[in-house]
Fold each of these.
Amino acid sequence: MKFPNDFLFGAASAAYQIEGAYNKDGKGISNWDVFSKMPGKTFEATNGDVAIDHYHRYKEDIKLMAEMGLESYRFSISWCRIFPNGQGEVNQAGIKFYNNIIDECLKYGIVPFVTLYHWDLPEALELYGGWINKNTIDAFTAYAEICFKAFGDRVKHWITFNETVVFTKLGYIQGAHPPAIENDQKKYFQAIHNVLVAHAKSVEIYKELKQYGEIGITNVFTPAFSIDDNLDNIDAANHANNYELYLFYDPVLKGEYPEYVSNQLKERGVFPETTEEEMDILKRNCEKNDFIGLNYYQPMRVARNFDVDSKEKASATGAAGGAYFDGYFKTVVLLDKKYTKWGWEISAEAFVEGTKMLKERYGDIKLYVTENGLGDIDPIVGEEIMDTARTEFIEEHLKACKEAIRQGINIKGYYAWSVIDLLSWLNGYKKQYGFIYVDHDNNLARKKKYSFNWYKGVIENRGENL
Ligand code: BGP
């Protein structure tokens, strides 16, 4: 089977992880510019000041994407390039930079797929409470509207937020992302609510503009499965799916919180402050979403956790194992499964099973795999970067997409993470994901990896030979 002609083969990146030029041409400072410089916060104190200098090399990078045959490129806009203070004055140099990126893509027929928020919040807003402060909702929607108006003539695919569960949980529970707060459930659920309202309002604005493109939201997709048939463990998997999936998709697609979660949050006194108007915004816009994006890396294998005093907490870098923050379940490393060097399970089958769960709950909503890839330390053989483990990984997952499509799941595109080696939030440059290698010892020179030509071939024959 070939992938259908309207299926997009793409690859992805995010502004903070590639651009650099962190204080150039009027860009404001982001929360990550500040956080990454706090001692001990990132791997080997890496930061995005220069990153891979895509800001100055975007022409070379997009030319390589075109050579690879990429049909679509998912990238994010850095909010503080457009609004250095998060709101107020627009920085025209920021608009110009993204116009250049978009035009460069279109020059080669590459479809731009734009994420508005991939975690780099203007520090000016973080200082006033960031996602806890409801003013950030209005600041975000004003920023979204400016982007729709500036770029919407050429950009027809919009993602509002990338992985709400990750930046809020690491920000307010695990303290591993800005604003580096630990174990504050009240703030965690409030931030989620505010993000979801900002999403729904942006969808409303986008649809009112009648630009005839599509808009949705991306979440990390970690479907939970019980490790066995034990009823306690099945209950644990249900709990995990409610807190990690349904909490993030129900308000978007059904306009309400899953009862299972909201009842428990109310009992624990950590249900967010919501207004009638906000709940109405969620409700009246839920059917306007055109798609949801799935960043799929791994599933969760879960068991009920009865050892509530256990100190073994879930890792901030995503490795399987450890107790969930509310103590209810733990994720388990299983001997018969494969794991990456960073302890992430490799399972293409779980992707297919997970998409079936989504279909059961949300019907035929269009899906894009907005990220999927293997973080590895690529072997260098002679002069070549032989990332065959990556091509095997992507092949398995593209086959899983085919299988899901065969079973009636509405998947319309696949974006490998990442188009080029880039800065990992917490793993520096050591954890590689790209089709293109960046030589940090040689002036950030770009080099095609083995996977580059492999993916080019896959795109050329629309996946027929997989
Ligand atoms: C996702 C993020 C990406 C990217 C990826 C890999 O959660 O959306 O920005 O970082 O994970 O993560 P890591 O670099 O931690 O392996």
Amino acid sequence: MSDILTIALSKGRILEQTLPLLAYAHLTPLEDVQTTRKLMVDGPMIQGVQVRFLIIRAADVCTYVEQGAADMGISGRDLLLEHRPYVYEPLDLKIGCCRVCICGLKDAVEQGEPQSGSRIRVATKYDHLAENYYLSQGIQAEIIHLYGGMELAPLVGMADRIVDIVETGSTLKANGLIEEKTLYDISSRLVVNPASSATKRTLIHPIVEQLREAIVQQSKPEETINGEHDSSGCQSS
Ligand code: PRP
């Protein structure tokens, strides 16, 4: 067995929610991964094996895990659905909760969904998810691939709809767009390289179980200072 266990983490907004789960599983990175410019950071030793973290773009986590460059990682369900990598997905971490939605300008959405047989221009980074949905509806979709800021495309007349992540809805609102339909509820998933799952089972299995326990702990309602109950985690997924 290799003497390193590599875990790929997504940069960005998910990272902050990932760290408490890792801490519960005794997997705290030795440097502040939210501020460092390093892409590879050491973690603790477990069972005499050095843990290291890769801090990479969310869209790349599955590639590193599928290729075996990382043994395990944390990836959004949106990316798993879009790219369908060959990885095991043992846990819903119930963080990074949002949804993949079809959205458009208010006026356009209020006119109703496009009719079967019609054509539509759709801006998205989820080309396959968008294409499959419209195909299932008998609508001919021209997919315009963008890397971010999808909400701009309808504003400048480049697309009729977008298929994108909605979390709070504030980006849509700020740009005069509304939701038309939710396609998928999303949360972050623990993903494991299938070969690592076999060869490093004695390391990986306890981590999966500790993370499972962390999710249960984190989803327990907490007393707020007002005496009301609050809970974190996804409402649905
Ligand atoms: C994501 C997504 C939306 C926004 C939704 O973008 O693409 O634009 O967040 O979040 P909200 O519903 O809470 O407003 P992100 O900030 O990740 O940047 P990007 O547009 O560059 O992908």
